[in-house]
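In response to the reviewer comment on reproducibility (Comment 2.3), we provide here a single inverse folding case reported in full, input and output, so that an independent group could reproduce the run without further information from us. The structure tokens appear first.
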């Protein structure tokens, strides 16, 4: 029996290797603890906001506040769907779909991270494909976008390997200090359909989420 009011709690993407689930409070706590355990080399900030450098328990608290804020601000106009990525029942990271005016734009951006000990084993690639499957096949998007700092080799490798087209770069403040270069990428629906769609990825609970987000067929 699903949640009576909040279908994002019941959203799932199943791949042979991963289960990707809508973020409940329990999963959010596991994710916050994983983040505090370490996501990246402290000397190199992969995110636009340097939240991952906070000390515990401030890091976990701010992570929870961010997830609650995203949930509270969900509307048909703007959404940031945070999902927990599990391997054999344990949370290993997160992937998100972010959109503004999806009804007209039919476009979503993705973001993700894994706990450090889970990186470099293909999970990032698998969870990106899972996220694209939800966006294109589940929600009916026409475009996906993503971005990374110019030196984020693993993130850029996943993006390039999946065949996104580089659309440009822009300067932005990194790590509260110096400006740096962010690379932006996009993928049209046709590329996903021709090269990335798989028949071993299952979407669960999507129709109710579409209703919540005001997405018409
Ligand atoms: C980005 C991230 C989600 C990718 O997940 P992952 O499981 O590590 O990625 P995968 O194992 O699927 O693939 C990593 C790719 O990076 C490549 N790679 C890893 N380190 C590299 C390096 N130093 N230089 C060049 N390529 C590198 C791997 O060879 C692989 O590419 P390939 O499949 O073409 O061989 C993960 O590394 C992560 O959480 N990083 C820290 C947080 C972060 O950067 N988030 C993204 C912010 S934009």
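Designed residues, in position order:
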């Amino acid at each position: 029996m699903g949640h009576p009011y909040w279908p994002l709690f019941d959203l799932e993407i199943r791949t042979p290797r991963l289960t990707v689930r809508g973020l409940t409070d329990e999963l959010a706590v596991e994710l916050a603890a994983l983040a505090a355990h370490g996501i990246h080399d402290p000397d190199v900030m992969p995110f636009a906001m340097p939240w991952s450098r906070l000390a515990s328990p401030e890091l976990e608290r701010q992570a929870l506040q961010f997830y609650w804020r995203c949930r509270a601000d969900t509307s048909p106009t703007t959404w940031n769907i945070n999902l927990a990525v599990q391997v054999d029942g344990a949370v290993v990271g997160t992937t998100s779909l972010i959109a503004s005016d999806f009804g007209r734009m039919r476009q979503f951006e993705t973001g993700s991270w894994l706990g450090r000990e889970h990186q470099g084993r293909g999970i990032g690639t698998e969870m990106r494909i899972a996220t694209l499957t939800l966006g294109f096949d589940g929600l009916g998007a026409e475009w996906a976008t993503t971005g990374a700092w110019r030196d984020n080799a693993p993130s850029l490798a996943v993006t390039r390997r999946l065949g996104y087209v580089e659309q440009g770069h822009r300067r932005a403040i990194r790590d509260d200090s110096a400006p740096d270069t962010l690379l932006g990428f996009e993928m049209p629906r046709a590329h996903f359909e021709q090269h990335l769609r798989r028949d071993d990825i299952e979407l669960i609970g999507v129709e109710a989420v579409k209703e919540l987000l005001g997405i018409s067929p």
